[in-house]
UniProtKB/TrEMBL annotation:
One of its GO terms (cellular component) is cytoplasm. It is found in: Cytoplasm. It catalyses: NAD(+) + ATP = ADP + NADP(+) + H(+). The lineage of its organism: Bacteria, Bacillati, Actinomycetota, Actinomycetes, Propionibacteriales. One of its GO terms (molecular function) is NAD binding. Its main location: cytoplasm. It is an enzyme of class 2 (transferase). This is NAD kinase. The active site is at 90 (proton acceptor). The gene is nadK. Its EC number is 2.7.1.23. The keyword Kinase applies. It comes from the Bacteria. Involved in the regulation of the intracellular balance of NAD and NADP, and is a key enzyme in the biosynthesis of NADP. Catalyzes specifically the phosphorylation on 2'-hydroxyl of the adenosine moiety of NAD to yield NADP. One of its GO terms (biological process) is NADP+ biosynthetic process.
Amino acid sequence: MTGQLNVEEVGSPVVEQASDPRRVLLVAHTGREFAVEVAREAHRLLTDAGMVVRLVGHEAEALELDPVEIAYDAEKAAQDVELIIVLGGDGSILRGAELARPHGTPVLGVNLGHVGFLAEAEVDDLERIVQVVVDRSYTVEERMTLAVDVWVDDELVFDTWALNEASVEKAAREKMLEVLVTVDGRPLSRWGCDGVVVATPTGSTAYAFSAGGPIVWPEVEAILMVPLSAHALFSRPIVVAPTSRLSVELVAAWHGRGVLWCDGRRMVEVPPGARIEVRRGKMPVRLARAHAASFTDRLVAKFDLPVLGWRGTAELNRRNRSAQEESQTP
């Protein structure tokens, strides 16, 4: 492909010479033909507007776009770009968040999936969304993250982060976990369970919601904990302060092994006796917003919630009939 720029070496003369144009990093689910078509259309709209499109190496090979910059080092792909535009579902947006977070780059999602709760727009709105990007008429909000550590015999063996949730789950279907949950170093309860989900407000509409947890508005700073199929009298979801430190310890005598998943993307096995500590992350994820709609409106739209009820529907039908009769009156 012609017109390509290798940005593998950040700070190289090549990058410095090409730093004047406005850049966006385009992230797409290249395994889906529809997503490839949408990515090509987004590339056309952006380049026609004078913007430079950057792609991660393996996606560039699949999309075959020209002109384009190519970042062969994914960890540096979001450096010096104005925005990351993600075309896909929530999984793709979480992948975009991985690229964006170290550089503080905003992420704007265009939904090609099902619910797409993290997405800002649907694919039918692509042309308008590109214009919003070109006009810089979007806003940016910060979403809190979680810092997650795994300790074994008082030794830190793994650390990572999450935007949605960290979930500790049983590794074998036939064996449940026995966990001891603590808050700020004080024991709260011990459960035999399938696992425990610790989530942010952003993640309250994801795995934690499916497990029976509450929906928390993103402006609320808090950490949620939701047990999964717990065999206990006290096994309700809890919400704690963002300054709290939660821990889930796999009781050593139980001999049940677990698996830690963060955002469904980063995984590590955890042995009996391991302790998973979760606290607020120091580095947030920045999400770009192109709409002024409230979170309530987003919730209603994404989940297709029945805001009218049967009384409201009846009233709406009466109004429609009246309007139809008036239009037929000579």
